[in-house]
Write a structure and sequence with these properties.
single chain; 216 residues; alpha/beta; Glutaredoxin; 2 domains; 5 helices; DUF3105
Length: 216
Amino acid sequence: MGSPHSKARAADRRARVEEIRRQEQARERRNRVITITACTAILVGLVGGGVYLVNAANDSGGGDAKSAAAGSVSGEKTWSGLTQNHVDKTVDYPMSPPAGGDHSPVWQNCNGDVYDKPLANENAVHALEHGAVWVTYTDKAADADVKTLSARVSKTPYSLISPYADQASPITLTAWGHQLGVTKADDPRVAKFFDTYVQGDQTPEPGAPCTGGKAS
């Protein structure tokens, strides 16, 4: 049989072993808690970051997300922040034909109106403010294309067509803040431009009249 001192030492060893085991178990529990907490934080961060990226994509470029949702037309030019003041003077527009900006208090009639003479920019821009699409053409446009476009306009409320000498393309389609140049009436983007911008989301004054304005 062992001496009392041996038994005491054995008991001390067992006690130390148990204490070490408890400490190791405690460390393991702490490590598990830390690991779970860290993984949860990473997961939350990833989910939150994903939500942020989705929201950021939806909110980016205003216009960009809104234009994409509205079906913006390939090759078009766009402008934002255009002024809408009524003025009784000639306006020097930064684009030709103008796609928005200050304009005459009187709008050009745009209820499917076909004009065979050039229009005053300031009246036509007011029609754009009401949600019209303005089709313009130069003498380089084929007569058959002008006839086709005129037929489309005549059947489309909130549109108008007129000759326009000072433009880069034979045919130009213009809405408020949007413009597309094409060479032929059968370009599929013509129909898309009409579908997108006749009373489209870009319209500053949706539902405003296209009759009762300037008729020639």
